[in-house]
Task: inverse folding
């Protein structure tokens, strides 16, 4: 197993190096400095900035030093938009708020969707199944923004009115993690909205997976053995279904960071999405570059984890 | 050999229909047959004639929807399986009646070891603890001729060859000492040498345990070697039934005669193999009267008007040879 993991890591390493190379090149195709200092900067300002960003060095040297930053997780260039802060600090501070939403949201929506899909597959073709599929399609047809607006209207505005000023259960701005119960206050509502948004898609996908599995021959064998329907679903079907389930969850992971752009904007959460958009708007070169590296690393780690998860679930993977 | 014992399994006019977009498909439409204790009944017929659906009906595993056994009785040791509660039926499946399938590659669950899959059945029906069940699994693997069973028990299906997987399926089926083994084309997916081994294994296990076997196949050669009694099915019905020697010596139904003629073993050298013209009619649109008439050289008006009943052949009724044809006398001369 360890050898397998090592192989996966070695296999993904060149991919990561390639992504970083591409990221750095892409950010340098157009000279980033005029974006910060204006179209016609004073030559000495320009030189200072160029030196601060290391852009005066040959590309290979920049590449090496940026890789060193990544390895040590120390992005020490100063932010242009928020002077006094290092790019690494901005990224580091942005991760927890994002995770506070995306991790519970993903876990909840996966858990609920898989259960709903199991119920749906259990009653396949009958009323409960049809009803659930119908709800899923409706859920999918409504835009993310609509859920956010409705959620904020009822969950924050109307509910707070009901509970009286100052006692509101959910807030849509602020985000102060030093308060007791901050998570419920600031994160629960966006988490719920995010779960509802993904439920439709997830349920439909997982139901299709279950239906496909339930038509496989090994199910008939298990039935012919005398196993109960419950046992067949939870012991036989679910473990086989784990393979596509894992794939989907892992594919969803990076999207959850981007998916939370909207949520973070509407709820004023100082997470990755909010900060990245802000950095892009401000042409904050060091911060954009650090975010890019973190996204890439996240993507690669996800990839490796996916492969490991496969190996844990599917005995056929290990040998190859 | 075919002592008129009380039958172990008796199908009486079983009808299983599928309800799909094309209407009602009468996949099994009034099938009756019996299997005595220790006997092997071979069921033959072309693809799509309802052999598997009959077997699934016995196990009450017809996918529903769209399928449903709408009429008939399936008496197992005198009890009508169709009238049992699902819970009672589960106690019979895998325990009194076990089943093996055509595709050993997909019939085993890929994510569990073969040992675990046998253990599951044994623990379900025999209430053994984990250790005992594992010992039983190893014993079963040994019984079906799998080398080094102590190691194989922890392997996954993909690590075994096709023949070995079918042996595992047999070990699984035999693990609770069934009284009846339903083998639905157990050798079709295997290559020829392995086929013979698997059939021998089933026969050996049958001798040892005294179980009955329902052997479904479209290979008359297999039937000739292993079955005591044969049922020939066509379009959801039994068209002829007879002891095996009798069927091969004196087939009575035009369809059976056609099937036997098309056997390579019986063909005269240098002659092109005769085949039965046409295809099996679609189960939603069977012809009126005799269902074989569209492909039969003897067919005439009566065949379209009336369905021929299954009637004893050759006068002497004791040996259980019967066929469903209006013109049996002429058919024998074919
Ligand atoms: N799940 C199903 N849904 C609809 N129709 C079905 C289903 N299973 C079987 N049938 C119909 O039942 C008929 C009999 O099928 P069955 O599988 O019993 O044939 P068979 O004799 O076992 O053939 P084969 O030799 O190919 O296994 C077929 O015509 C098929 O169309
Ligand atoms: Mg079949």
Result:
């Amino acid at each position: 197993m360890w050898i397998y993991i090592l192989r996966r890591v070695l296999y993904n390493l060149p991919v990561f190096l390639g992504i970083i190379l591409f990221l750095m090149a892409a950010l340098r195709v157009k000279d980033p400095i005029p974006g910060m200092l204006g179209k016609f900067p004073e030559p000495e300002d320009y030189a200072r900035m160029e030196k601060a960003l290391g852009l005066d060095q040959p590309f290979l040297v920049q590449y090496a030093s940026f890789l060193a930053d990544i390895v040590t997780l120390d992005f020490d260039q100063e932010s242009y938009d928020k002077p006094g802060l290092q790019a690494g600090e901005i990224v580091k501070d942005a991760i927890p708020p994002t995770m506070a939403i995306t991790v519970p949201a993903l876990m909840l929506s996966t858990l609920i969707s898989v259960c709903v899909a199991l119920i749906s597959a259990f009653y396949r073709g009958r009323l409960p199944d049809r009803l659930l599929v119908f709800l899923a399609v409706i859920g999918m047809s409504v835009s993310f923004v609509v859920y956010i607006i409705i959620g904020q209207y009822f969950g924050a505005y109307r509910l707070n009115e009901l509970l009286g000023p100052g006692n509101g259960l959910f807030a849509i701005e602020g985000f102060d993690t030093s308060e007791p119960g901050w998570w419920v206050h600031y994160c629960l509502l966006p988490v719920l909205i995010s779960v509802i948004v993904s439920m439709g898609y997830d349920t439909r996908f997982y139901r299709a997976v279950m239906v496909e599995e339930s038509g496989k021959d090994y199910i008939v064998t298990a039935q012919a053995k005398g196993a109960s329907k419950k046992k067949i679903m939870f012991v036989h079907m679910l473990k086989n279904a784990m393979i596509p389930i894992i794939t989907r969850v892992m594919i969803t992971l990076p999207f959850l960071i981007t998916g939370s752009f909207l949520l973070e904007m509407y709820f004023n959460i100082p997470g990755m999405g909010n900060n990245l958009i802000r950095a892009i708007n401000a042409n904050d070169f060091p911060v954009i570059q650090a975010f890019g590296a973190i996204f890439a690393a996240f993507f690669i780690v996800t990839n490796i984890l996916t492969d490991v998860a496969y190996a844990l679930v599917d005995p056929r993977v290990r040998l190859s | 050999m075919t002592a008129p014992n009380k039958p172990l399994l008796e199908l009486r006019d079983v009808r299983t229909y599928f309800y799909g977009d094309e209407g009602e498909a009468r996949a099994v439409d009034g099938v009756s047959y019996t299997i005595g204790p220790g006997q092997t009944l071979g069921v033959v017929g072309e693809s799509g004639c309802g052999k598997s659906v009959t077997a699934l009906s016995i196990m009450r595993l017809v996918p529903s929807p769209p399928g449903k056994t709408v009429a008939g009785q399936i008496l197992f040791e005198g009890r009508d399986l169709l009238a049992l509660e699902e819970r009672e039926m589960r106690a019979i499946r895998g325990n009194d009646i076990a089943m093996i399938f055509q595709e050993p590659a997909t019939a085993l669950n890929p994510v569990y070891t073969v040992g675990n899959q046998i253990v599951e059945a044994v623990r379900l029906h025999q209430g053994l603890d984990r250790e005992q069940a594992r010992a039983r699994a190893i014993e079963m693997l040994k019984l079906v001729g799998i080398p080094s069973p102590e190691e194989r028990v922890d392997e996954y299906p993909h690590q075994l060859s096709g023949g070995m997987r079918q042996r595992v399926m047999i070990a699984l089926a035999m693990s609770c000492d069934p009284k009846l083994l339903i083998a639905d084309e157990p050798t079709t997916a295997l290559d020829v040498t392995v086929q013979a081994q698997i059939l021998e294994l089933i026969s050996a296990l049958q001798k040892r345990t005294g179980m009955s076997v329902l052997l479904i196949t479209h290979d008359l050669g297999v039937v000739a070697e292993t079955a005591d009694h044969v049922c020939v099915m066509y379009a959801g019905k039994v068209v002829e039934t007879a002891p095996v020697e009798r069927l091969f010596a004196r087939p009575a139904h035009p369809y059976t005669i056609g099937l036997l003629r098309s056997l390579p073993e019986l063909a005269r050298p240098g002659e092109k193999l005769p085949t039965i013209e046409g295809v099996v009619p679609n189960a939603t649109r069977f012809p009126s009267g005799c269902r074989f008439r569209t492909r039969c050289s003897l067919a005439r008006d009566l065949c379209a008007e009336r369905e021929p009943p299954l009637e004893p052949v050759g006068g002497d009724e004791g040996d259980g040879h019967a066929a469903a044809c209006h013109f049996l006398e002429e058919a024998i001369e074919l």
Remarks:
- The interface with chain B takes residues 125, 216-218, 220-228, 235-236, 239-240, 313-316 of chain A (CB under 8 Å).
